[in-house]
């Protein structure tokens, strides 16, 4: 694989900042269409989400009550459904253009509803998954939980219900990234193993970027697809424009790569519904008796590269929900990733206040799955072709999107925070949870009231109660108040 990293000035038709799944997918799509394109980013991907993702082609398995009741949430679900239809051909095209022989790591997904968690989240989530499957007439079948191969949880964690979704798979994220990079270079694209530190603008139009080495990469189209780092490159914008773009925080997560004691792994993804602000407990086979166990989710203003002990404790304790003998396995790797989470919880897709500067990020947990869809759409946008106008609702300079009412946001924050305790099998007196719930509701209500009289943040940003995030939300809301 060739890499351009010379000290000379470089001139391209387009430059994509970010070498994760989204950035490489757009680069590949453009290169295949004859565009001279460079993709920038350190090969080590220090803060990437896709490099350590479980890489589930999660679509219906991600459905929740909040997603289905929101217009913008349903738009995201529709994007997931369209992306699913692209994946077979997309994966095959990458295999044919690279040295990868296999990218898919699991065939189909089993959803389990077990005795961990709370009905308002887990049972409601399970019902939402079925409702979404029925609405889209997607095939699935109910399973006898006791007859699921490989699954052998402790009795206190046994599943009560289960269903199989045959068209929701998973890929090996490392193989996918290798395949994308190889296919991109072979299609004529250029990889540059450096970070961008500044976007250049001349007469109201983006003209390229400055690299860490001070080299300049020139292009009339600059696409920011650098995940949590994308917002750091918006200093070129007028302050009033930048203030009306939701800042990006990190939804950092921890996952484990495990070798099972008997060297076996399931053929399918096995997962719970989304729970406690995270994407549910999930096991994804990775071959040779190794499994990916994920994942936690915490909101932070800064990306992380190391795992917190409490995240590891949560994951290690959750092994009992899948197989009681996983405690006898071996931990091959502790993985930490940073999901890009805009302050209103929805993607940032479109031009950014000046000609030629685009954002293609903020996809939270959906970016890898949606990558073929978003890449094809952005290629069309950059080339001035017909594109999917339904994605225009996620234009970066926008009024805050509100998926939940104030009351729903408050109740979601309370329920999910309490669910963290139940998920970790907290041992407290039986009369304490109502007292804790009352205290949480009062605390979150005060935070909501202090933030803004009408704007409502995503529930997880309210629940994590970080002063820096609160300040960022206040500034974002204030900018829109002043603009209106």
UniProtKB/TrEMBL annotation:
Molecular function terms, GO-annotated: oxidoreductase activity
Residue ranges of domain FAD dependent oxidoreductase in the record: 13-380
GO terms under cellular component: cytoplasm
Keyword Oxidoreductase belongs to the record: yes
Keyword list, A-Z: Oxidoreductase
Taxonomy, superkingdom: Bacteria
Record carries keyword Oxidoreductase: yes
Protein's name according to its UniProt entry: Glycine/D-amino acid oxidase, deaminating
Organism from which the protein derives: Actinoalloteichus hymeniacidonis
């Amino acid at each position: 694989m060739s890499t351009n990293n010379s000290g000379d000035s470089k001139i391209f038709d387009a430059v994509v900042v970010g070498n994760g799944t989204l950035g490489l997918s757009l680069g590949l799509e453009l290169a295949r269409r004859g565009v001279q394109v460079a993709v920038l980013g350190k090969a080590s991907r220090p803060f990437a989400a896709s490099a350590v993702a479980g890489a589930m082609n999660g679509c219906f398995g991600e459905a929740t009550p909040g997603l289905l009741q929101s217009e913008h949430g349903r738009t995201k679900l529709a994007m997931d459904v369209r992306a699913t239809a692209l994946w077979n051909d997309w994966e095959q095209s990458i295999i044919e253009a690279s040295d990868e022989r296999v990218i898919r790591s699991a065939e189909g997904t089993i959803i389990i509803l077990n005795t961990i968690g709370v009905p308002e989240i887990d049972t409601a989530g399970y019902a939402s998954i079925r409702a979404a499957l029925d609405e889209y007439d997607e095939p699935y079948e109910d399973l006898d939980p006791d007859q699921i191969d490989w699954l052998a949880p402790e009795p206190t964690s046994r599943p009560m219900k289960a269903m199989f979704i045959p068209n929701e798979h998973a890929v090996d994220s490392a193989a996918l990234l290798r395949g994308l990079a190889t296919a991109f270079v072979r299609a004529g694209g250029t990889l540059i193993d450096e970070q961008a530190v500044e976007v250049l603008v001349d007469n109201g139009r983006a003209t390229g970027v400055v690299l860490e080495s001070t080299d300049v990469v020139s292009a009339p189209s600059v696409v920011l697809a650098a995940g949590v780092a994308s917002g750091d490159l918006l200093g070129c914008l007028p302050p009033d424009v930048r203030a009306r773009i939701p800042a990006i925080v990190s939804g950092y997560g921890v996952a484990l790569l495990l070798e099972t004691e008997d060297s076996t792994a399931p053929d399918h993804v096995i997962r719970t519904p989304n729970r406690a602000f995270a994407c549910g407990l999930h096991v994804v086979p990775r071959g040779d008796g190794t499994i990916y166990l994920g994942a936690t989710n915490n909101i932070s203003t800064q990306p992380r590269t190391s795992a917190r002990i409490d995240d590891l404790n949560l994951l290690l304790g959750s092994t009992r929900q899948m197989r009681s003998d996983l405690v006898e396995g071996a931990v091959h790797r502790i993985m930490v990733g940073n999901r890009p989470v805009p302050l209103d919880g929805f993607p940032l897709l479109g031009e950014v206040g000046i000609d030629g500067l685009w954002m293609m990020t903020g996809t939270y947990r959906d970016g890898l799955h949606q990558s073929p869809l978003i890449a094809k759409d952005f290629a069309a946008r950059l080339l001035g072709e017909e594109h999917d106008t339904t994605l225009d609702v996620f234009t970066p300079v926008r009024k805050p999107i509100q998926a939940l009412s104030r009351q729903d946001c408050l109740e979601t924050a309370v329920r999910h925070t309490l669910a963290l305790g139940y998920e970790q099998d907290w041992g407290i007196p039986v009369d304490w949870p109502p007292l804790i719930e009352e205290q949480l509701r009062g605390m979150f209500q005060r935070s909501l009231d202090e933030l803004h009289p009408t704007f409502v943040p995503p529930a997880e940003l309210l629940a994590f109660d970080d002063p820096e995030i609160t300040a960022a939300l206040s500034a974002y809301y204030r900018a829109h108040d002043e603009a209106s």
